[in-house]
Structure prediction request, 411 residues.
Amino acid sequence: MHVTTGRDTGGTSVAESAADIASRTTAIERVLERFGEVALRAGAAHGLRGDDLDEVMQDVRIRIWKSASGLAKLDALTSSYVYRTAASAAVDMLRRRRARREQSTTADPAPVLALAGRRSSYADAALTSTEALAAIGKAVDEIAVNRRAVVRMYLNGYDREEIAALLGWSEAKTRNLLYRGLDDLRQRLTTLGMKP
Amino acid sequence: MTIDLHDGEMRRAYQALLREREGIRGQAVPLERMRDLVEGRGDEAERLATLDAVMADAESAKEFELLRALVANRPPTRVSWARRPYLLATVAAAAVIMIVAIPLARSSFGPVNTDPDRSGVQAAVLLRPSTEASPLTSRKFEWRSVTGARSYVLEILTSAGTPVFTTRTSDTTITLPPDVRIEPGVEHRWWVSSELADGSQRRSAFRRLMVRETK
Prediction:
């Protein structure tokens, strides 16, 4: 049996069997399931939200459906193709999200939150004052530029291996710059009046 | 003002600072630059500048993490020697070790054998855990005994080569102490070196280990 899917494939409708559709759906889901799992696992340690990834995967699903008629075999989809599609989908999603934020800012300008004078709701017992948080920010800002990015990444919860992998550095270079940067930070905090 | 200057406390403080700043809208890092960063494009100064800006802003850091996680699926690409000169140095150093240092060590200090043994003594055969294991089953390591082995050294490493746990035993099984944690979802490798009566060693092949994440 052949059915007309009515699916928009770039302006042309195609007729295909129900079995073809089912097979294509299965193939796409198989590819996306593994892709999503790996991404979620990779981002789990740093708070990647599952619904963000779901939104990207839904977009990828649609993009692959639209281009599927031009692909001989979905099973043969290369991981490179899926990755490129997902990366583009993610950038588009983030762009839309930024645009929405901009719109909401224009419609209802959010008050600029001043750090000074506020008390941190997140700080724990050792860091109850916003002055301490501001000092951390100031001290990090003053670190030499080639060490600062590494220190910021580390302070954000990434480990040395992740930093090295991102920057394409050797473990030794990463360790060297990170530890020097952290030493700089400690010295600056001490200069700013922080006491260990 | 007092603050604990240990890494953990500084991390907590910095992350608290970023959360405090979440309501303040700064200059957003262009998404194309962020993608270049996670995909390894651009020169180092540019990428460091992007990383610095990303890690100074909580919203950008979240966006970065989504792109970074997707890159985990990217198929390997050919590495540019010009962009990663340390790799060239590493290969050169490895070649020197292969050609000069290992034969010298063998002649100077007796057998330091990590190759398949030619005298009939085999390396340990690794039994468990399997390549993918649950948090529970990943804590017990077991291998077949090697004839003539006096002790065994078990080593667990991250995929980057950082040791996670090393121990020596005369047994063929080890249960990890409670304070040793193998991070779920991260690829590790492990191997066993058999120490023979004559002081030589037989090293097993590496085996991958990925601990499944619990839901």
